[in-house]
Amino acid sequence: MLAVLVYIIVFKEDTERRRLLTKRFGEIGLEPIFVDAIKGSALSTEEQKKFQGMSRQIWAKEAFQSNAIGCALSHFKAWNLFLEANANGAFVFEDDAKPVESQKPRIKGQLDKLWANAAQLDIVFMANRQIHSKDTVVASAKQGLCCLKYSGVGAESYFITRRAAERLLRNPLRLALEVDTLMHQWWLNDSKILYLAQPLFEEDGRQTLIGYERSEKARGGKLFLSLLRRVNRLRWSIYKRLKFPSYLKSIY
């Protein structure tokens, strides 16, 4: 059986951060594999244009930021690495992820449990910024997992299986939405999206270098695109409200 795969996305030149992350994850019994982050601002104009098509303008008023493009491509790179390794899943972290201090003793055991149950899972987020939003969280005692009625945010720490990674890499919306937005929205990615009821990881407070920069307006007819975005939001709003009961049944 393959050893548990733990990938951390970090820039190749950030040796200080790599030393810190090696120590941080080593303290909880994990040996990370570093994935060289892709710098969006260094991409060619042609490469960036792939993320600025009509699909993007239908989903968002702002142009796809270059750092967000680099972030998305970095996550895609991590997924392809574990698929090439013929693994059933992998744990993926961004460079600002850190273990929740009070959870350190149980992290390795919880990750081993997720790894062992990969066949029943798609994506499990190990951090949850909305854990206290009781009106949007539907909890389950099963394996300490829960789901959100709408969607969470962030992709600093998660477990992803082969099935989910393959679906996301085929999803045309990967070129229209930020990677964390697409991953969290179960009604768009055809995967079961779960969260640990007790988060194991959190952001360390350092602004990730993979993050976001200033926004620019998308080009095109403002009125026409605004109308398209409204119709698109209404369409998916209705869909997810109708789909949510059956989505829950597919999980529990």
Core attributes:
alpha/beta, Spore Coat Polysaccharide Biosynthesis Protein SpsA, Chain A, 252 residues, 10 strands, 41% helix, 9 helices
3D structure, described in words:
It is a single chain. The chain has one domain (6-251): Spore Coat Polysaccharide Biosynthesis Protein SpsA, Chain A. The chain contains nine helices and ten strands. The mean pLDDT is 89. An eight-stranded mixed beta sheet has the order 2-1-3-8-5-9-7-6, with helices on both faces. Strands 4-10 form a two-stranded antiparallel sheet. The two termini are 28 Å apart. 33% of the residues are buried. With 252 residues, the chain is an alpha/beta fold. Helix 1 links the parallel strand 1 and strand 2 (33-36). Helix 4 crosses helix 6.
What's this model, at a glance?
The chain is 41% helix and 16% strand. It is an alpha/beta fold and 252 residues long. The model has no long low-confidence stretch (mean pLDDT 89).
Major sheet: size, sense and barrel closure?
A: 8 strands, mixed
Low-confidence stretches: none
Oligomeric composition of the shown chains: single chain
Terminal Cα span: 28 Å
What do we call the CATH topology? Spore Coat Polysaccharide Biosynthesis Protein SpsA, Chain A
Shape: globular
Number of domains: 1
- Specify the structural class: alpha/beta
Number of helical segments with 4 or more residues? 9
Q: Sketch the topology as an H/E string, one letter per element.
A: EHEHHHEEHEEEEHHHEEH
Q: Tell me the strand percentage band.
A: 15-25%
- Name of the CATH architecture: Alpha-Beta Complex
Largest sheet: spatial strand order: 2-1-3-8-5-9-7-6
Q: What is the residue-mean pLDDT, rounded to a whole number? A: 89
Query: What's the CATH class, please?
Result: Alpha Beta
Radius of gyration: 18 Å
Number of strands: 10
Helix content: 40-55%
